[in-house]
From TrEMBL:
Keywords: Cell cycle, Cell division. This is Cell division protein ZapA. It holds the Pfam family ZapA. InterPro entries: Cell_div_ZapA-like, Cell_div_ZapA-like_sf, Cell_div_ZapA_N. GO terms for biological process: cell division.
Length: 96
């Protein structure tokens, strides 16, 4: 069993101490950087008075991206299934 790692992640001028598996560190640090970049973008683009508003906008943005990827993947799967079905029918015709 690997040993846990204690790190500190800073988001919106607050520090969050975390105890994680070592293999999670890179992903968490990259996620924190993306959140910070998005916060900066929202603060520059909109007159935001409260960090909580910016964080809510970030959460919505990330959730929407995740949902859109799921929708896109589902659509791609349906297209792949249709193509496989068509190929299977074509093969069946030639094998008979």
């Amino acid at each position: 069993m690997s040993e846990k790692l204690k790190i500190k992640i800073s988001i919106a001028d607050r520090v969050y101490p975390l105890t994680i598996q070592p293999e999670q560190e890179e992903g968490l640090r990259k996620a924190a950087k993306k959140i910070e970049a998005m916060i900066k973008q929202f603060e520059q683009s909109y007159a935001v008075r409260d960090k909580q508003d910016v964080l809510a906008m970030c959460a919505l943005q990330f959730a929407a991206q995740t949902e859109q990827k799921a929708i896109d993947n589902s659509s791609e799967m349906l297209q792949a299934e249709d193509k496989l079905r068509s190929l299977n029918e074509l093969l069946q015709k030639h094998l008979v």
